[in-house]
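User: Let's play a game. I give you a shape written as tokens, and you guess the letters that built it. Ready? Here's round one.
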């Protein structure tokens, strides 16, 4: 059982050529005469001119450290940084910008929860529920904590259809978990998990909830208030923003009750030789000089995505994945992993009989088509699927059906080389 797919088709006109013109890199050729077909946005998205310009503009006009100076540039830099925080808060419908903490990426956001909340609130025997389709970013921090604190990790299984087994989840909830931490969208199967339902049931047994939104926030509208989660983690670089910055959203009370993560400048109200008083939210969790220009870039990315509209982006990707699945299934020997299009986002992980995924990716690259091969930092999921690796094509707002056709042509080339 899954909730209805937030990517369900919405008939909004989507001017793809106009959008493609916003992304300078999409004009390049991989080699002379070979235009780039970028099908690796699940790993990292491309950046529109508006984001590149916002960051350049910041460095050209008002670069300075934030929160510490009274001079004009310091004030302008602080306003730009805090303005980005306000934009991000609006984008995910956070009740307050103080609940938006800038981290380095989604990985650091999840680690922040594991270290600060987990260390203070979990003890030997406590149950943490994860799923079998997690990225390593939502596995290893809990492994580390399990070793340190002897907590017990349980996993919602992935069924044959590539969906979470919610009957087994209900059984796991009888163990009285302290935390349920799960991905909103799998970076391999593309599965969109029924997050609201998972959270509602977790809350009913008093568990704290963390949503790994690294693959959801870039691709469809995510509203933390309607989700009802305690934490949401995501990365800027997968949503048209720069690398080096990510976000942890948290509930106000839970963030206020948590001890700090890292210590240093900015995260303190006062420091004495033998003691310190932590700062208020969100600064308590932002030690040291943050990624200021990157925050400005993320703010511009959020503006860009909002201008196009997350529902329009989701509808476009839904159409893309439906077409891609249809075409991939035509290729003899191709097996696509994960659920049918209505339960998934724009990710197609696949194998081709008799060919190693790295060879697939290499031969596709010779035709200008960029896909990823490997376990995509989801090794336990691949173990469950019984394969060491997959090739993965992923789609974003700038991809076209003609690019899917190039992928398919490339796969026929791969087959020819290996026949
Ligand atoms: N969670 C999910 C679901 C992800 O897909 C990723 C990155 C992360 C967390 C971690 O994000 P980061 O920005 O902190 O690294 N996924 C991928 C991928 O699929 N290929 O490269 C990175």
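Assistant: Ready! My guess for every position:
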């Amino acid at each position: 059982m899954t909730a209805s797919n937030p990517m369900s088709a919405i008939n909004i006109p989507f001017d793809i050529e106009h959008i493609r013109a916003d992304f300078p890199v999409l004009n390049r050729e991989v080699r002379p005469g070979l235009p780039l077909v970028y099908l690796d946005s699940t790993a990292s998205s491309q950046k529109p001119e508006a984001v590149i310009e916002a960051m350049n503009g910041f460095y050209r006009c008002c670069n300075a450290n934030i929160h510490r100076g009274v001079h004009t540039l310091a004030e302008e830099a602080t306003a730009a940084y805090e303005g980005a925080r306000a934009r991000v808060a609006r984008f995910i419908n956070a009740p307050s910008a103080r609940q938006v903490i800038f981290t380095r990426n989604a990985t650091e956001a999840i680690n922040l929860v594991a270290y600060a909340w987990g260390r203070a609130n979990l003890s030997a025997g406590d149950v943490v529920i994860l799923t079998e389709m997690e990225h390593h970013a939502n596995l290893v921090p809990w492994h580390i904590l399990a070793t340190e604190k002897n907590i017990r990790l349980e996993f919602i299984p992935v069924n044959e259809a590539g969906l979470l087994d919610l009957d087994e989840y209900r059984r796991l909830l009888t163990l009285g978990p302290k935390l349920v931490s799960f991905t909103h969208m799998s970076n391999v199967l593309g599965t969109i998990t029924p997050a609201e339902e998972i959270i509602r049931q977790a809350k009913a047994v008093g568990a704290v909830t963390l949503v790994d939104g690294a693959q959801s926030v870039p691709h469809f509208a995510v509203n933390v208030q309607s989700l009802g989660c305690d934490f949401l983690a995501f990365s800027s670089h997968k949503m048209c923003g720069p690398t080096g910055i990510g976000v942890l959203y948290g509930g106000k009370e839970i963030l206020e009750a948590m001890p700090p993560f890292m210590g240093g400048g900015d995260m303190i109200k006062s420091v004495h030789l033998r003691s310190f008083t932590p700062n208020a939210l969100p600064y308590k969790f932002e030690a040291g000089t943050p990624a200021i220009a990157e925050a400005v870039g993320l703010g511009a990315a959020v503006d860009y995505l909002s201008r196009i509209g997350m529902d329009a982006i989701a509808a476009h990707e839904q159409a893309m994945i439906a077409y891609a699945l249809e075409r991939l299934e035509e290729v003899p020997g191709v097996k696509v992993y994960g659920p049918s299009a209505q339960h998934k986002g724009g990710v197609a992980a696949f194998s081709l009989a008799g060919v190693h995924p790295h060879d697939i990716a290499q031969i596709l690259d010779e035709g200008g088509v960029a896909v990823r091969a490997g376990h995509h930092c989801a090794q336990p999921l691949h173990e469950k699927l019984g394969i060491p690796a997959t090739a993965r094509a992923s789609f974003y707002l700038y991809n076209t059906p003609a690019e899917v056709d190039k992928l398919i042509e490339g796969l026929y080339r791969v087959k020819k080389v290996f026949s």
